[in-house]
Task: inverse folding
């Protein structure tokens, strides 16, 4: 049996830099000695994603157009943040408010996922939030048009299983949050 080993980075350079997208080109040496001089990595900021539950048992989802998929998708609210300068829980609460106009009483971390660790640097910080309530108006950026969609807690899993919720990090967070909520009931 072979134990996985990290690759050695021989050199790294910015291949493309733009305010919306950064691409890095690495020259790496694999554990078997093979050198690859064109391993491209998408460099992205961290993300924060929230499973927000209202006092009456609704989970606040958002529906919006996702250009790379070419579809309008139902997902949990969240967004990107600078992990070097901002606390993940504060970023999660801010992103939730900006997309929906909702605030929360309490927010707790559930975990961190890697979005696509083969070709992408992004980590997604996952949170469950209680006491979500509408307290203002959404503050969308120029690319956003968001429909806020409250879904009864009991309908979240059936919607995942029916394929109505397809965004991978949202699906993962739903399963993790539902498990956490179940543990608190038991």
Result:
């Amino acid at each position: 049996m072979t134990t996985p080993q990290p690759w050695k980075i021989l050199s790294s350079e910015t291949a493309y830099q733009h305010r919306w997208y950064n691409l890095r080109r690495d020259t790496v040496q694999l554990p078997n000695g093979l050198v690859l001089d064109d391993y491209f990595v998408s460099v992205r900021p961290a993300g924060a994603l929230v499973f927000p539950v209202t006092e009456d048992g609704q989970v606040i989802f958002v529906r919006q157009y996702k250009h790379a998929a070419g579809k309008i998708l139902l997902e949990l609210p969240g967004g990107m943040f600078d992990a070097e300068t901002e606390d993940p829980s504060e970023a999660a609460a801010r992103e939730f408010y900006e997309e929906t106009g909702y605030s929360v009483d309490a927010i707790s971390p559930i975990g961190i996922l890697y979005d696509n660790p083969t070709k992408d640097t992004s980590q997604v910080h996952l949170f469950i939030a209680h006491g979500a309530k509408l307290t203002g108006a959404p503050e969308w950026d120029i690319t956003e048009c968001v429909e806020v969609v409250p879904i009864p807690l009991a309908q979240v899993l059936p919607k995942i299983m029916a394929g109505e919720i397809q965004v991978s990090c949202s699906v993962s967070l739903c399963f993790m949050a539902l498990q956490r909520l179940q543990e608190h009931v038991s």
